[in-house]
Amino acid sequence: MYSLYTDAATQPQTGLSAGGILIVHDHQQTQQKVALAATDNHTAEFEVATLAFQRLRTHLGDAVATASVLFHTDSQIVSQSLAKRYAKHYQVELDRLLAAQASFQLVLTEWVPEKQNRGAHTLANQALHAREEVK
Q1: Which helix (H) or strand (E) segment is 89 a member of?
Q2: What is the pLDDT of residues 100-135, one digit of tens each?
Q3: Where in the numbering of this chain does the RNase H type-1 domain appear (predicted)?
Q4: pLDDT tens-place string over residues 14-56
Q5: Domain that holds residue 29
Q6: CATH code for the domain of 18
Q7: SS3 state of residue 115
Q8: CA nearest 26: which of 2, 6, 5?
Q9: Does residue 55 sit within a domain?
Q10: SS3 of 118, please?
């Protein structure tokens, strides 16, 4: 079982967004910081989750068909949308995320409070600060 944690950070004044991805498997952690195209936080949360599943799928190759993932997010809109398979204002983003999850044997989504998502949260903020320094 893979544990996957994601979080996004957005600076409303500049519209810059970045994300953090934390993958845990067999007591090993993989940390990734990513720049995102999204300009609002909700869209950024969907985007980083989609990227995380795409990257994990690429990493696993053919083994993806037998892989199970416990996906942790502190985004209520992402968690609730996945549970309902519907998002009033973010259906396109949700459909992309569902497509990215489709290759895996099993995906369980768990909403967690921000304090339990510190690893991904810290990575997202570090990536956002790096983007702001470059600008």
Answers
A1: none
A2: 999 999 999 999 999 999 999 999 999 999 998 876
A3: 3-87
A4: 999 999 999 999 999 999 999 999 999 999 999 999 999 999 9
A5: 2-130
A6: 3.30.420.10
A7: helix
A8: 2
A9: yes
A10: helix
Q: Residue 53: phi, psi to the nearest 5?
A: -70, -40
d(CA 19, CA 48): 6
User: What total number of domains does the chain contain?
Assistant: 1
Please report, for residues 7, 66, 90, the alpha-carbon distance to residue 113 in angstroms, rounded to integers and kept in the order given: 11, 29, 22
Token digits for 90?
């973010």
Q: String of b and e for 45-82 (b: at least 16 CB within 10 Å)?
A: bbbbbbbbbbbbbeebeeebeebebebbbbbebbbebb
Q: CA 99 to CA 97: how far, in whole Å?
A: 5
């304090």: which residue's tokens?
115
Neighbours of 91 (CB within 10 A): 12
The amino acid at residue 32 is Q
